[in-house]
Design a protein that fits this description.
flat; 51% helix; 5 helices; mainly alpha
Length: 83
């Protein structure tokens, strides 16, 4: 049986063609987790002179980065230790 015959055999035709959108994710999200929504502050950031609000936005941004995984847990722990 040549390679071409093998490729066109029952094995190749039996597999259903799955569209890339329907293919399962490599790392599926936790199904119980609520859908991630950005807080309104992040969707429409306005220049705010107040320091408290600035810090709040930074904190939110860091939290979002952490949820997305752009800040690794190790980095996060180090930052919390160093203050």
């Amino acid at each position: 049986m040549s390679g071409l015959e093998w490729a066109s055999g029952s094995w190749a035709s039996a597999r259903p063609s799955v569209s890339p959108a329907k293919r399962p994710l490599l790392w599926p999200r936790n199904r119980n987790a609520p859908p991630r929504k950005l807080p309104p502050v992040m969707l429409n950031p306005k220049p705010v002179p107040s320091l408290e609000k600035d810090l709040a936005i930074r904190k939110q941004y860091r939290r979002i980065c952490f949820l997305k995984g752009t800040i690794t847990m190790h980095k996060h722990r180090l930052k919390r230790r160093l203050g």
